[in-house]
Write a structure and sequence with these properties.
This protein is about 20% helix and about 25% strand. By secondary structure, it is an alpha+beta fold. A hairpin with a 2-residue loop joins strand 2 and strand 3 (about 35). Bound molecules: uracil (URA).
């Protein structure tokens, strides 16, 4: 059982405030009956909820895509720094969302937030080899030796070399994309350092086959589409 307004906002359908207004206007029905009080409890598995005459499916989990700006940490709670959760509306605090993997404070781009802990764990497990692609800018021109080294494996002081990566430099050799399957602390920065270069800009543009929505400005977010959720759940 759960509150009707939580059911609707949990689905990313409306915010709780919008829900209140919609209920007042008679736009919400449960089992065909107009409900004006959005705080009533419903059975999310059995009751049929309609919003403006469309049936709302119940989603157990929530999945968001955020375009992370600089200056925010990929954590749920920090007394001193702004976290990525600060970019979401207040009511999203109650959903138990957390970032699926971490981006450094100065890294921007695609961050997936979910409350599906089991799936997040699987997506981050090295067993699943989920590719994450980043746009990078570096301080000196990439050489073929550097690229080979980055692609085959670099000793960044971990137990083993980094797993094979894919590097696609731009014509300038000062930027490009790199795809990695692991997610060690500062991994790409450390890989570049180890080959005698330096990352000056890093932005994640793809997670598995999910691309950062280029209509999202930094700090903006949206629900993942059903197709994008399917990409994630294919790793279950
Ligand atoms: N590698 C890094 O060095 N930083 C990130 O934020 C992500 C990957």
């Amino acid at each position: 059982m759960m509150r009707l307004d939580k059911f609707l906002s949990n689905n990313g359908f409306v915010t709780r405030t919008e829900c209140k207004k919609a209920a007042k206007s008679g736009l919400i029905k449960v089992n065909g009956i107009v409900i004006k009080d959005p705080s009533v409890k419903i059975d999310e598995c059995k009751d049929v909820v309609e919003f403006n005459n469309s049936i709302v499916e119940y989603n157990e989990f929530m999945y968001l895509m955020l375009n992370k700006p600089k200056g925010y940490i990929s954590s749920t709670d920090d007394p001193h720094k702004k976290t990525v959760l600060d970019l979401l509306p207040d009511e999203y605090r109650t959903f138990g969302l957390f970032p699926c993997g971490r981006l450094d404070i100065d890294t921007t781009g695609l961050l997936i937030l979910t409350n599906n802990g089991k799936l997040a764990h699987q997506l981050l497990s090295p067993k699943h080899h989920v590719y994450k692609t980043y746009y990078f800018e570096c301080s000196i021109k990439l050489t073929t030796v550097m690229i080979d080294h980055l692609q085959t494996g670099v000793d960044i002081g971990e137990k083993s070399l980094t797993k094979p990566s894919i590097v696609k430099p731009d014509e300038t050799m000062l930027s490009g994309t790199i795809s990695i399957t692991e997610g060690k602390f500062h991994q790409i920065k450390r890989m570049f350092e180890q080959v005698g270069n330096e990352i000056v800009e890093l932005k994640r543009i793809k997670f598995a086959d999910i691309e950062l929505d280029n209509t999202l400005k930094e700090g903006e977010w949206r629900q993942l589409s059903a197709q994008e959720v399917e990409i994630l759940t294919s790793f279950e």
